[in-house]
């Protein structure tokens, strides 16, 4: 059996006591290439932040195998492009886990950065200010930063949003190259046609796991319909979890906190009424 790279044990993640990813269990195989899909607000980015440790579990756990090096690329919207930095500065940040923030870069480090920029089609862009780059150029630079990190586990949150088709194609090829090097890769993707064509495995989320496995099976119409219906029936901010995996039917499971009981009961009733409508 292939060794897992990371394992989810009844993992629940969320914000301000409101769960966003509910009771997720399963493992990601070492060397696998997995798309994470679902509607906006389905928990995809939350899961990425939980894996990298930005969010701590509300319950359960996310266990990354020992000695696994992680590279995490958040959405472009979370980046401050106004920071006065050059492309070479941005890419070199990928070296700080090895060198430290005050470490001196070696000639080998500079060669690695130059090769990474060449690999993403940005040779000659070293001294360009980051705030002058197009969306596609910035994403290429960010992929170059991931390249120099030389990570075992690569997490990419919506890397194909708002970039041109040529850049998407080039970045897909780079992801496939990483996959061929037996790195473990998880990518948040919205374009299901892109997933079907390039991603062997898919995790379909609707704040809980709807399906997870081979992309052809996961993206079956009945699974997509189930995900949409569950997402639409969810009352935004309602502090409860749906853990029906063990019961075979919808069963509201409330995360109780002091003073929340009356609100939880009312929220659950609203969900049940909307789901029955």
From TrEMBL:
The keyword Zinc applies. Residues 257-267 have a biased composition (Basic and acidic residues). Residues 245-267 are annotated as: Disordered. InterPro entries: AAA+_ATPase (IPR003593), ABC_transporter-like_ATP-bd (IPR003439), ABC_transporter-like_CS (IPR017871), AztA-like (IPR047748), Metal_Ion_Import_ABC (IPR050153), P-loop_NTPase (IPR027417). The keyword Membrane does not apply. Keywords: ATP-binding, Ion transport, Nucleotide-binding, Transport, Zinc, Zinc transport. SUPFAM superfamilies: P-loop containing nucleoside triphosphate hydrolases. One of its GO terms (biological process) is zinc ion transport. Residues 6-232 form the ABC transporter domain. GO terms for molecular function: ATP binding; ATP hydrolysis activity. Belongs to the ABC transporter superfamily. PANTHER family: IRON TRANSPORT SYSTEM ATP-BINDING PROTEIN HI_0361-RELATED, METAL TRANSPORT SYSTEM ATP-BINDING PROTEIN TM_0124-RELATED. This is ABC transporter. It comes from Phyllobacterium endophyticum.
